[in-house]
Amino acid sequence: MLRADDNEILTRTGPGTLMGNLLRRYWTPACLSAEIPDPGGAPVRARLLGENLVAFRGTDGRIGLVQENCPHRGASLHFGRNEDAAIRCVYHGWAFDADGRCVDMPSEPVPFCEKVRMRAYPVRESGGIVWAYLGPRETMTPFRDFGTGGAGAEEFIAAKQHTTCNWVQSMEGNIDTAHVSHLHQFDQVDDIPDDGSDKPGYPSNAMSWKFWRHDRAPRLDIEDTWYGYRYAGIRTTPNGHTHVRVTAYALPYSTMVASIPFSAGHGMFVPIDDENCWRYILIPKARRNPRNLGGENLFAAAPFSTPITGRRDGVTPREYTAGNDYLIDRDYAAHGIFSGVRDFVSQDLMVTESMGPVYDRTQEHLGSTDKAISRMRHLLLSAAKGLAEGKEPPALAGDFTAIRGAEKILEPGEDWRGLGTDADPVVREAFGRE
Ligand code: FES
Ligand SMILES: [Fe+2]
């Protein structure tokens, strides 16, 4: 459990809050490039950390991220006209450039443009995401390159999905290895043929379902790192081997979930406000798995729909919502789908959203499989409190492209800590470094 005051610090991200101040020190996804594809196209709302903002790609190609409400009398610039390298309010025609400068005031006999400035944030487009810095200009931190620097947007899957709960609550689901043995289970796992890969080395993705099902109470081992931590969820396989899922967490909002042989894709949990977040995915399209370890995609063996197997780039729609009880079907549950929900990610959304918009963590009872979640909370809380005491935020500099998840059955004596790192032979092979 968490003390009530710590729960408040952890979950509140508006201007002036401790966590809000911390998050504003990192470049943060504000919207997808795909939402504002064309110069001069329609602006989009981009509420972020409790601030109502609008993003637009000006006719000059520059992206603006500005306050939503016009500084004149507050009409929404979501309805503004994107023209003349500025966004023009349709109420009285005032226009503002990407820096928030008033560049036209046609309703005034004697314009006073120089007296009006609107809130505008610096942005940087990379990997199909428009990143923004919402912190004080004088403490602007370096852009953190998760592998998108110098690469084209077409080299990544960049997508986001709306979640109606607090960002930490949603993120806790992504770094919780124990739940794959329950929430995402289905009885037909028992019918998946044994292909002989339950032995030291890389098993098939299909067999992985079996391992999660076989050992439902994993042991967790955490290694602190410069960016946050990595941890292994350790399970014993039916043949008695040691199977590990290695998940990485990079402060403040990024997770790399385990996959075979290693994973470089990010799940990022970005607060819209304290009761809503975007669940961003940023995944390199190049598979970097020359020997096709793991074989067929994990979901080939499962009866679930997923945003990855279906729609890809852009804003992923929500079909399964609290309003329709996530289309839970008790017949599916009776016939093998543990959760009764057909869509994989919606299974996660059902459990995390149903905790309420901001869960009261004084009510919970944590066990040993919640260790990684506690660690994440602790790192976030120390960083937020530390910043208030003048300490620099963590995880600002380093090689962010070297952060990876991994999954494997260990060789006798093998240390999971090497898996997915630059020293791992499969990583070296995948990047042509052998
Ligand atoms: S409210 Fe925007 S120009 Fe008047
Ligand atoms: Fe999940």
Task: Explain how this protein is built.
The protein has 2 domains: 27-143, 3-layer Sandwich (Rieske Iron-sulfur Protein); 156-430, Naphthalene 1,2-dioxygenase Alpha Subunit, Chain A, domain 1 (Alpha-Beta Complex), CATH 3.90.380. The mean pLDDT is 96. The strands form 4 sheets. Strands 11, 12, 13, 14, 15, 16, 17, 18, 19 and 20 form a 10-stranded mixed sheet that branches. Strands 5-6-7-8 form a 4-stranded antiparallel sheet, with no helix packed on it. Strand 7 and strand 8 form a beta hairpin. The protein is an alpha+beta fold. 45% of the residues are buried. The longest helix has 18 residues, at 371-388. It is elongated, with a radius of gyration of 23 Å. It starts with a helix and ends with a helix. It contains 8 helices and 20 strands. Fe (ii) ion (FE2) binds next to loops.
Please supply descriptive tags for the structure shown above:
elongated; binds fe (ii) ion; ten-stranded mixed β-sheet; 8 helices; binds FE2/S2 (inorganic) cluster; four-stranded antiparallel β-sheet; Naphthalene 1,2-dioxygenase Alpha Subunit, Chain A, domain 1; Rieske Iron-sulfur Protein; alpha+beta; 2 domains; 434 residues
